[in-house]
């Protein structure tokens, strides 16, 4: 069994399962937003919708799901395609640097998203 420190789950099966669960949550959220928009929405009704706690929780679940989904997907791409053999002697350094930059970007995305959703 191959284990990597930067993967989100304990192993490949856990990562695969997290990807599928987060994908379903994102699909449900997308369908909810599409349904909300389809009825014709104006600012007061949109604001009233997003003031409800269950919508904030659902939005937070979607936000965290997108972060986890993106992290696993980008980690898989970086570890599969940015190899030391492909990039020469600096391959490991570039892959780790890329992972850190992506992790920082996802962290900022989550922090800003929580601040927007919950007003903190």
TrEMBL record:
Keyword Transport among record annotations? yes
Q: Give the residues the record marks as binding a ubiquinone.
A: 81
- Quote the subcellular location field of this record: Cell inner membrane
Q: Which GO terms describe its molecular function?
A: electron transfer activity; heme binding; metal ion binding
Q: Which GO terms describe its biological process?
A: cytochrome complex assembly; tricarboxylic acid cycle
Q: From which organism does this entry originate?
A: Kineobactrum sediminis
What is the first-listed, main subcellular location in coarse terms?
A: membrane
Q: Name one GO cellular component term.
A: plasma membrane
- Cofactor binding, note field: The heme is bound between the two transmembrane subunits.
Q: Which UniProt keywords apply?
A: Cell inner membrane, Cell membrane, Electron transport, Heme, Iron, Membrane, Metal-binding, Transmembrane, Transmembrane helix, Transport, Tricarboxylic acid cycle
The residues forming the signal peptide are: none
**What Pfam families does this protein's entry cite?**
Sdh_cyt
Cofactor dependence is on:
heme
Entry keyword Transmembrane: yes
Q: What is this protein called?
A: Succinate dehydrogenase hydrophobic membrane anchor subunit
* Database matches in InterPro entries: SQR/QFR_C/D, Succ_DH_anchor, SuccDH_FuR_B_TM-su
List the membrane topology term(s): Multi-pass membrane protein
Instruction: Provide the residue positions that the database annotates as binding heme.
Output: 69
Q: Which Gene3D superfamilies match?
A: Fumarate reductase/succinate dehydrogenase, transmembrane subunit
Its pathway, per UniProt, is: Carbohydrate metabolism; tricarboxylic acid cycle
Write out the transmembrane intervals.
Answer: 21-38, 58-78, 99-118
Query: What function does this protein fulfil?
Result: Membrane-anchoring subunit of succinate dehydrogenase (SDH).
């Amino acid at each position: 069994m191959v284990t990597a420190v930067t993967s989100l789950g304990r192993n490949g099966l856990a990562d695969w399962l997290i990807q599928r669960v987060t994908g379903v949550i994102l699909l449900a959220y997308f369908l909810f937003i599409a349904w909300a928009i389809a009825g014709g929405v104006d600012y007061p009704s949109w604001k009233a919708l997003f003031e409800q706690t269950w919508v904030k929780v659902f939005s937070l679940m979607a936000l965290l799901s997108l972060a986890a989904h993106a992290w696993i997907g980008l980690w898989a791409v970086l570890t599969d395609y940015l190899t030391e053999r492909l990039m020469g002697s600096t391959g490991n350094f570039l892959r780790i640097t890329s992972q850190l930059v992506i992790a920082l970007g996802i962290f900022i995305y989550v922090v800003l998203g929580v601040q927007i959703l919950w007003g903190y």
